[in-house]
Every structure is written in structure tokens, then in C-alpha cells.
Amino acid sequence: MDVVKAAQLSGRTLEKVMMHPLVLLSIVDHYNRVARDTRNRVVGVLLGTSSRGVVDVTNSYAVPFEEDDKDPRIWFLDHNYHESMFSMFKRIKAKEHVVGWYNTGPKLKEKGLDVHALFTKYDSALQPLFPWI
Predict the structure, then answer these.
(1) How far apart are CA 28 and CA 31, in angstroms?
(2) Whole-prediction pTM value?
(3) What is the per-residue pLDDT across 77-97, written as a single tens digit (0 to 9) for each?
């Protein structure tokens, strides 16, 4: 999804997204550790700041995620793990908040909308940032 479509979905203007290299390396490492040579996806959280249409993604962490291959309506994302990790990150960098989430794979599946809806419970103004790696 490009920046213009993302901005139209949220009702806010999003002009620029900056993603630090460590975030990209962290996502690739997560995929290599968990899902390499499989058809499984990995999901994680993007942390950073947003101000005046600019989102600065400075950190990320993996979140345990599983999905049923046979029934696309069945999936599991560990909310408790996410909340614990976010709490720890907030102690280190209080200004960072959830600015998006990532998932690996060749395309965004329909359940990605459900995952996004789950993350908007933590921040209703969450922009749909989807880094493609």
C-alpha cells in the first residue's frame, strides 16, 4: 500500500516514512530465525514517533504469531507478549509508540486486516504501515 492510500484510509496526511536500517535487519533476522524455508509468515510491531505527517520507525520487535493453513479465519497473535514487550520498550524510550506492524510474505492476506484492527485497539489513529522486505 502506498503512502497516499494509507493517508486516505486514516484520514490523516502522511507525507513521509523513515525506517532505520536496524529495523529492517531485525525483521529479516526474525524471518530467518522463525520461518525460513517454510511458508509461514512472521508478524511484529514497529515502534517510533510521528509528527506533522512524518513517521520515524526506530525500533521493532517480533510477536509470536500462528495461523491455520486450512482455515484462514483461525490465527493467533500473543497479546500478552506484545503488551509485555511494549511496556519494556516504553521504559527505555518513553517517546516511542506503536506506529505500525509488519508481516512477511509475498502478499498481504485478508487476515492482515484483522491483525491491523487488533493493533488499532492500542492506537486508533494507527497508520497502516506495511514494509515489504
Answers:
(1) 5
(2) 0.80
(3) 898 999 999 999 999 999 998
CA distance 54 to 13: 9
* Residue in this structure with the C-alpha cell 520487535, named with its chain if needed: 61
Give CATH superfamily name and number for 3-120: Cytidine Deaminase, domain 2 (3.40.140.10)
Query: Residue 68 contacts by C-beta under 8 Å, 6 or more apart in sequence?
Result: 74, 75
- Contact criterion met (CB below 8 Å) for 101 and 79: no
Residue pair 119/126 in contact by the 8 Å Cβ criterion: yes
Give the residue extent of every domain in the chain: 3-120
In the block, cell 532505520 appears at 20
Tell me phi and psi for residue 26, to 5 degrees. Answer: -65, -40
